[in-house]
Amino acid sequence: MNRRGRRAQEIRDALDGGELRVAYQPVVELHGGQLTGLEALLRWQHPDRGLMMPNEILPVAESTGLILGIGEWVLTQACRDLQQWRQLYGSAIPHVTVNVSPFRVMASGFQTTVERVLQMTRTDPADIFLEVTESTLLEDGPRANSVLQQIKDLGVGLILDDFGTGYSSLNYLRRFPFDLLKIDRAFTKSLESDESTRKIVAGTIDLAHVLELEVVVEGVETARQLTQVIDLGTDRAQGYYLCPPLPADQIKQRILETAAETGPIRFPLPERATGN
Ligand code: C2E
Ligand code: MG
Ligand code: MG
């Protein structure tokens, strides 16, 4: 068996053997600092190699079709975790967002799988957003559009992830049924140093707002970047500065348990943001 084949087998064993995990990163609303959602991110708790990241799993999972099983597992786990948090803490977590690979969207039965998982976990479709990347829309736009429309018809929200990294086309924003646009962290990184990046992000935000899409900026690592994205009119943000991705039990301990005492979960923002 070659290296790729061995890795595929390891991933299959990890899925069957319960070694996969979901980490969650808070997404924060920038008008008042309130938690709006958690992004579910795949992790692999390897017995010898420790915590492994998606880039060590996804390429092989996608080329072998294992992503179908993994994707369904992540969605199911995210729905279950959300249900558990809801029971304990009410609506402190408005929604969970789950990344979906282009291969999964375009392979048959996507809508059926999503519907089945939602029913099985008794999850309200309005509590789930799926994140897809631009590459999903490239290969067969009309088919992608019809699949995404089916997902929308279930009542599930849609996010266009990593916006600006692919073949960004204004047409995607207009034609496809997205609710939110997530600006890639490559832009966030050069906000401070590069005036043209600032202009591009500002223009993208204005355009998204014209199309009635909310904008999330990802990869916010510093207070200065947070101030900048707020000044540019961004609706929501996520990044290490606000909170890194955390295992489910830490989300519970560090975030939800505090909230149970203090009411809605708020993250401190630079003063300007709350208008004080
Ligand atoms: P993404 O959906 O754009 O997720 C955001 C990535 O940025 C995550 O990396 C997150 O850990 C990282 N991140 C968050 N805040 C910061 C920050 O302030 N600075 C920097 N430099 N990075 C930050 P991660 O977890 O390694 O995931 C990488 C990509 O793998 C994701 O990008 C997503 O495309 C994919 N992915 C993750 N989980 C899944 C999954 O369950 N299914 C599928 N199909 N793809 C997944
Ligand atoms: Mg994402
Ligand atoms: Mg992204």
Task: Provide a brief overview of the structure.
The protein has one domain: EAL domain (TIM Barrel).
Account of the 3D structure:
With 276 residues, the chain is α/β, with parallel strands linked by helices. It has a single domain (18-257), classed as TIM Barrel. Helices cover 49% and strands 20% of the residues. It is built from 13 helices and ten strands. It has an eight-stranded mixed beta barrel. A hairpin with a 5-residue loop joins strand 1 (20-29) and strand 2 (35-46). Helix 1 (3-16) packs parallel to helix 3 and helix 3 (66-89) packs parallel to helix 5. The longest helix is centred in the first third of the chain and has 24 residues, at 66-89. The radius of gyration is 19 Å and the shape is globular. It starts with a helix and ends with a helix. The protein binds ligand C2E and magnesium ion (MG) (2 copies). One magnesium ion binds at residues 161-162, 182, 184, 218.
The portion of residues assigned to helices is 40-55%
Helices and strands, in order, run as HEEEHHEHHEHHEHEHHEHEEHH
What is the number of beta strands?
Answer: 10
Query: What's the CATH architecture?
Result: Alpha-Beta Barrel
The distinct bound ligands, ions and cofactors come out as:
ligand C2E, magnesium ion
Arithmetic mean of pLDDT? 92
What is the CATH fold-level name? TIM Barrel
- In CATH, the homologous superfamily goes by the name EAL domain
Which ranges are low-confidence, i.e. pLDDT below 50, for 5 or more consecutive residues?
none
The first-level CATH class is given as: Alpha Beta
What is the domain tally? 1
Radius of gyration: 19 Å
Major beta sheet summary: 8 strands, mixed, barrel
State the secondary-structure class.
alpha/beta
How many angstroms separate the termini? 63 Å
Please count the helical segments.
13
